[in-house]
Amino acid sequence: MTVGIWVLLAALVAAAVIGAGLRARAGTVREVAAGPAGTGRDTATATGSPTPAEAADETVALLRAAGVRPGRVTIVRFTAPWCGRCPAVARAADTARTRLADPESVDDLALDLAGHDDLVRLLSVRALPTTFLVDARTAVRHRIADAPAPRELAATLTALLDENAPGTRTAP
Is the pLDDT assigned to residue 56 strictly greater than 80? Predict the structure, then answer.
């Protein structure tokens, strides 16, 4: 075989491995790194960038303005009319909520990507569908790229609800 065919074959194998790795992570509920107080991302404090506390305050204010209610666990789904996978995320969220002891205990909020530029920037939404799980303190706790498995989503929501159950100590 010629060198060109070997190079092409190596590129195809590399693309398949990378694609399989990305697909394996799709839909996984991932805990948000302990960045600035639940902003959903790490924030640099370079000149002109907000401090971690400012970023957290801005994130909370923007989430509440978008419809997240204090004291409620909320699924925040970013969507757009052209997003082909977004309906699958909505179905997964509905299915997960029906698996909860009290389906009404969790809010489900769909936000149009185009109407929430500041929130998209603060949460570093780079692709659709992207979903966040927000706790009762309005802190972003989990991030999901693509459609989650309803069972995993329901388990994560149950854990967030249990943190705020009566008699459970809630972190400040």
Answer: yes
Q: What's the confidence (pLDDT) of residue 170?
A: 41
Residue the block writes with tokens 């190596």: 10
Q: Within 13 A of 50's CA, how many CA atoms are on the CB side? A: 18
Q: Which carries the bigger pLDDT value, residue 127 or residue 52?
A: 127
User: From the CB of residue 123, how many other CB atoms can be counted at a distance below 10 Å?
Assistant: 22
Which H helix or E strand runs over 31? strand 30-31
pTM: 0.74
Domain 3-163 has CATH 3.30.70.360: no
Q: Structural domain boundaries of the chain?
A: 3-163
> By the 8 A CB rule, do 103 and 150 touch?
no
Question: In sequence order, what DSSP letters do the residues of 104-164 get, joined into one string?
Answer: GGEEEEEEEGGG-HHHHHHTT--SSSEEEEE-TTS-EEEEEESPPPHHHHHHHHHHHHHHT
Give the C-alpha separation, 129 to 90, whole Å: 10
